[in-house]
């Protein structure tokens, strides 16, 4: 049992996907990860519908004044431990929409982003890579929550 | 001597408690693996459902109200109880009643949250109960007319399997299994991985340990439902097991080749064709006064 529960978070990271006014390029690439060619489910990655069951929040597109409340709401509904992954140039920095009158910038202006996946749009391979990295951070966070005094560096 | 008997009962009880979730876990692992292969994917490891459950136990439990957890635990207890009664060969009618309580508590749990997704999911689950409950009753009535008893233990004295006399009800039960396993085309109250319906239907508001308990209860339920199929060939356990396994694989295939239908369609279908099949079967037994005991 102890052997199984070691690294358990990285064995089944469930993902909820939020589109913050992205151009849909990143969303298509993210969904491509679930198709038979890339098959993210072999790594235990599942795209769930509700944030209450998710471990990883995948955000595409930049933050703007219209969607910060929605984004914060979704983030707050996720149970601990949780990780945020910013997919695409827009989510990382604001990308081509940076400095628009309604755009605040990257997602990290609002949420604590753990993994950045750059590219416009990033390849499915690099998105899966980012999700694996995120699941590793997830495991570290779980250990940190379990023994708060140990203080694992993240 | 008495302690020896007690020990035997204790071991039996432990087996009943421990073995079904192991079987159920492997079955749902096989389910995901076969589904993946049918879709041309590699699929998750066989023990993925176990990983999911352990992970969920490690998560925070966010609840909308504190009654939600009560309903989850009620569901779990009554599913285990109904499986226990089935394995102890008790009264079939009673088993279905106990099993109904389990499902009802799940529906009430979904209703107790304010979320519209969860509520619509629960309402749809109520409708699917309306669809499958009569068939289960016809199954019991058929068994009662043949053996003159509701006791499952009586089936051991028969020399011909139930399937000989209840073939139409068996076909009806195959459709009921699709509803109960929450597979396409009838997975509209809540759904399994990779199909999304109403966000997550009835289970939208469950997270962490509560969802894990529901998942473990599902493993028990898998074994319980396949046990109902097993009863069709009780006289020879090997053939009964093969029958149950074939049913399970059939459900997986049906899940992958069908699109989801609306609940109206399901209600019309079950209340005409499926109930018609069951009544025809019961009428045949009644008119020819068939008895196997
Ligand atoms: S990073 Fe590129 S592809 Fe992705 S949302 Fe922004 S503009 Fe579209």
Written account of the structure:
The complex is a heterodimer of chains A (154) and B (293). Chain A has 154 residues and is an alpha/beta fold. Chain A has one domain (14-146): Rossmann fold (3-Layer(aba) Sandwich). In chain A, 35% of the residues lie in helices and 17% in strands. Chain A has helices at 2-5, 8-11, 25-32, 68-77, 89-93, 124-146, and strands at 14-19, 46-47, 56-60, 63-64, 83-87, 103-105, 115-117. In chain A, strands 2-1-3-5-7 form a 5-stranded parallel sheet. Chain A has a two-stranded antiparallel sheet with strand order 4-6. In chain A, α3 (25-32) links the parallel β1 and β2 (46-47). Chain A is globular. The two termini of chain A are 26 Å apart. With 293 residues, chain B is mainly α. Chain B has one domain (18-34, 43-287). Chain B is 71% helix and 0% strand. Chain B is built from 10 helices and no strands. In chain B, α3 (67-87) packs parallel to α8. The model of chain B has no long low-confidence stretch (mean pLDDT 85). Chains A and B meet through α2 and β2 of A and α2 of B. The structure holds iron/sulfur cluster. Iron/sulfur cluster (SF4) is lined by residues 22-23, 25-26, 60-61, 88-90, 95-96, 120-121 of chain A. Chain A: Residues 23-133 form the NADH:ubiquinone oxidoreductase-like 20kDa subunit domain.
Walk me through the topology:
The complex is a heterodimer of chains A (154) and B (293).
Chain A: H1 2-5, H2 8-11, E1 14-19, H3 25-32, E2 46-47, E3 56-60, E4 63-64, H4 68-77, E5 83-87, H5 89-93, E6 103-105, E7 115-117, H6 124-146
Parallel strand pairs in A: 1-2, 1-3, 3-5, 5-7
Antiparallel strand pairs in A: 4-6
Chain B: H1 2-38, H2 48-57, H3 67-87, H4 92-112, H5 116-147, H6 162-165, H7 167-180, H8 208-230, H9 237-257, H10 263-288
- As a percent range, the share of helical residues of chain B equals over 70%
* Count of individual helical segments of chain B: 10
Bound molecules: iron/sulfur cluster
Overall domain count of chain B:
1
The computed structural class of chain B is mainly alpha
Largest interface, with counts of residues having CB < 8 Å to the other chain, equals: A-B, 26 and 34 residues
**How confident is the prediction overall: mean pLDDT of chain A?**
85
| Annotation field: number of helices of chain A | 6
Oligomer: heterodimer
SSE arrangement of chain B, N to C? HHHHHHHHHH
Protein name (chain B): Ech hydrogenase subunit B
Subcellular location (chain B): Membrane
Organism (chain B): Fervidicella metallireducens AeB
Pfam family, one (chain B): NADHdh
